[in-house]
């Protein structure tokens, strides 16, 4: 019995040593900085609800067996114009977003409104060639007195050249007049 336990212990140690060496051999993540400006417009057609990729990348928000988690009424869907850089290379793009239901407590005493949303970001290089799309779930605060927004977008999926990226983007400012954003994507 002692021999069995001793052999098992050595086997586990050998497996751990091999796993450690295998993990050490993995390449370091490759990250790209993303920064620029976004200008939002109200989207009366709520395009995020009709895009074919929305059901693929946001299945929990558009389940056929339960009500949509997108609010979907006027003033809760937006398109955005993106101008920026990705890894110091110029990019342009469009965003499609829609506010989603949330359970945030009312912050009316603080003059702010908390929100959650889902966003599809489609980017192109300076030659106008599509690089792919990144899909985000967002949360943020809007200052009700001046329209300033603080928002964080967390990548939940991607396609094209962005396949398998993880990352976040932070936006701060009045998104309807043009707000700066900064983020990073890694794989």
Which CATH top level class fits?
A: Mainly Beta
Number of domains: 1
What is the element string, with H for helices and E for strands?
HEHEEEEEEE
The CATH architecture comes to Beta Barrel
Mean pLDDT metric: 85
Q: Which fold name is given in CATH as the topology?
A: AOC barrel-like
Residue windows where pLDDT falls under 50 for at least 5 positions:
none
Helix tally? 2
Q: What's the total number of strands?
A: 8
What does this structure look like?
- The chain is of the alpha+beta class and 187 residues long.
- It has a single domain (30-186), classed as AOC barrel-like (Beta Barrel).
- The protein is built from two helices and eight strands.
- It has helices spanning 2-24, 52-57; strands at residues 31-42, 77-86, 89-100, 112-125, 130-143, 149-158, 166-173, 179-186.
- It has an eight-stranded antiparallel barrel with strand order 1-2-3-4-5-6-7-8.
- A hairpin with a 5-residue loop joins strand 5 and strand 6 (149-158).
- The relative contact order is 0.17.
- The model has no long low-confidence stretch (mean pLDDT 85).
């Amino acid at each position: 019995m002692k021999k069995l336990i001793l052999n098992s212990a050595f086997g586990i140690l050998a497996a751990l040593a091999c796993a450690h060496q295998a993990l050490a051999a993995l390449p370091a993540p490759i990250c790209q900085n993303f920064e620029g400006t976004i200008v939002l417009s109200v989207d009366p057609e709520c395009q995020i609800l009709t895009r074919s990729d929305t059901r693929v990348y946001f299945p929990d928000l558009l389940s056929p067996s339960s009500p949509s988690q997108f609010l979907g009424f006027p003033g809760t869907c937006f398109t955005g114009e993106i101008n920026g850089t990705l890894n110091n290379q110029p990019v342009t793009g469009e965003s499609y977003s829609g506010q989603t239901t949330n359970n945030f407590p009312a912050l009316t005493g603080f003059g702010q409104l908390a929100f959650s949303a889902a966003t599809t970001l489609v980017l192109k290089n300076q030659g106008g060639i599509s690089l792919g799309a990144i899909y985000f779930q967002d949360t943020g605060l809007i200052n009700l007195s001046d329209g300033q927004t603080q928002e964080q977008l967390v990548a939940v999926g991607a396609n094209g050249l962005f396949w398998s990226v993880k990352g976040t983007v932070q936006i701060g400012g009045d998104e309807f007049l043009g707000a700066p954003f900064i983020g990073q994507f890694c794989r």
